[in-house]
Predict the 3D structure of the following.
Amino acid sequence: RRAFEKYEEIKAQEKIYPELTEHVFSEKFEQNCCNILAYNQPLKQRSNKKGYIIKYATVVSVCLIVTFLTVFMTMFALNIKSLLSIGWPSIILDETKAVTLETNDNTEITTSEVPNTAIPVESEDNFVIENGCLIKYLGERTTVTIPDEVTSINCDAFDGTSVEEIILPKNYDESLLNSLSMLSSIRKFNVTNSYEYLTIDGVLYTANMEELVKYPTGKLDESFTVPEGVIEISDSAFRGNIYIKNIVMNEELEIIRNNAFEGCSSLESVEMFNNLRYICMYAFAESGLREITLPDSITGVYGFAFYKCKKLESVTFSQRMDRLYQNVFEGCVLLKTVDIPDSVETIDTRCFSGCMALEEVLLSDSLTYLGSYVFEYCYGLKSIVLPNSLTRMQGETFSNCRNLESVTISYRTSRIDSDCFEGCNSLFLIKYSGTEAQWNIFVEQNSLNFSSLVKVEFETQYLN
């Protein structure tokens, strides 16, 4: 202070130090001030130097703060620009109150989950898990969240417990989905944090609703209508459910996958529409169906599709099928009549094997091939007319049809195996639509060996 008071005095004179007016903070100014105050005042000199240092530090601090703010604002501006480039996020709440962030151009940024109710965390001690397989649940809850490390579930994991609903883990694969069909006590499925699946009324679907993935094995409903939009029923979707009685498909459904309704022992009727194209292997095996009408849109009914449907009495075939695959109706013990449409050219191995009540079979006029054991153990069959179009019959086609009495064979049939009628102990008449000479050649070429009790009638009126 004293220095600047002196400086003001000197400035007023402007004769001794005129240069001080332009160099207030110069080193010369500091030296001059120190010279002025150098009359035995060391303490005041040190004070002046300290004041200068404080001013200098203040200037440096301000510069650093300005620099920091500049860098921060630059980074912030860049982030704002990147956000604007992808669009502002919007929050969507789905039915399970899962929060999804989507941008204006449908780019996903992040997601989080807000469950309907707080689900208590299960103690790890409640699960017995070995190599990713949930062996046993030891808890007492009715709703259980499956741990993330589980990749499959043992069929009796929840037997003897109160569990009715399971919440699937965030990440799971086909092996876990397959094991769900074996959980007979589970009545409801649920999912969390999943973009691939959703649940409606406890039934699991793909997120786009095009595939019905799993129907709970323990669900008690007796009737079910496939929702609109579903075009496929997945492998083992209803497998093992013993409560469902009636199924109504939607008009968009195209395919029923393997084992879809296998073991649905109470299932009595299925209404299908004219868009269904394929029924895959074991689709209705061992179900309780009593009758089935296959719409004309169906082109393929694959192996074992109605295997051991022991209550099935009537089947109406599609007029567009060209082949009946192996074992399709094997073990349908109450099936009495079969009218094969003229579109069918091939009937594969054991297609009607074990249909013990089968009394009447009308074969297709376009049929060219009969596989082995097709009508094996059809005890109710008394007569059969093989069409003129048939050219090949594999081994034991009618084996053990113990009540078969009469067979009509066309002279156009060129090849049948010698044991096609093995065990047909009641067979006494063969009607051959050809001459005796043709019959003799036919028998010799195929090494046929009929009992001496079998009578052969030559019906030449059928020659054309």
User: Anything to note?
Assistant: The mean pLDDT is 81.
